[in-house]
Amino acid sequence: MTDHQLTRTVKDSKAPAISRAAAILRLLGKSETPLGLNPIARELGINPSTCLYVLRALVAEELVSFDADTKRYALEAGVLTLARQWLQRNQVPDLAQPLLDRLAQQFGVTVLVVQIVGLDHIIAVAVAQAGGFQLSVQVGSRFPALISATGRCIAAFGDYPQDKIAARFARLRWEDPPRFEDWLEQVAQARTQGFGIDEGNYISGVTVLAAPIWKAHGAKRNLAPSHAIVAIGIGSAMKAKLDELQPALLDAARTLTLQLGGESPPPP
After folding, report:
1. Residue 232: which of 135, 93, 145 has the closest Cα?
2. Among residues 61, 81, 101, which one ends one of the domains?
3. Whole-number Å distance between alpha carbons of 35 and 224
4. 267: in domain
5. Are the beta carbons of 266 and 98 closer than 8 angstroms?
6. For the chain, what percent of residues have pLDDT higher than 90?
7. Total domain count for the chain?
8. Residue-level pLDDT at 219
9. How far is 125 from 127, CA to CA, in rounded Å?
10. Within a 13 Å sphere around the CA of 180, how many CA atoms are in the beta-carbon half?
């Protein structure tokens, strides 16, 4: 989520206190250095006195630390407790990691599983990287839902109204933006072949493949994918691997779908 999106979320939220706290945590989480009150308030468009109130509450809950000497705030170890509890309940990272490690080593690419949060965003929940020069992605990284190859899968299999997709697409930032009409054709192709591909649109010179993963919830199965498995590589080197990587990625997505109790939809 970009700083602009964080600011808009805070402004539009119907639960502003919770939204402000979440925005502050995300801002501190991506900052390489602790931040002072005024930079935080300015970045998020929050009144400084309101921002201070929220920060003090987060400090009291041990989610944020405050350095009295520098007057700056940073994430506190309390966030690890929340993350650990999520990891203990969520079986996707443990199930996915062996598959990701094998694909990363076999093809020399970065491979990850992302969790899909509707049309809002995707979050990396498991990552594997091969040796040598690779594109780095960390667990917890967030991206706009419709960006890159995963976005094409979400649009292809998510059964979302086209007007909502068009509105979200218009806000995406690409290095080489595709025309919406061309992108829709690529979405249709993803629906047919079972995976999405981005060849240099999101990041110049980088090719991204993504295949959807379905997860069952009780007796009712999702109509949309809950996760996706994603492979990322430098374009020139990636092209030579596509013929073998594509079926391997699809096979890994089917394996994870079955392990999670889901069921892939039949081909169109």
Report:
1. 135
2. 81
3. 39
4. no
5. no
6. 54
7. 2
8. 41
9. 7
10. 11
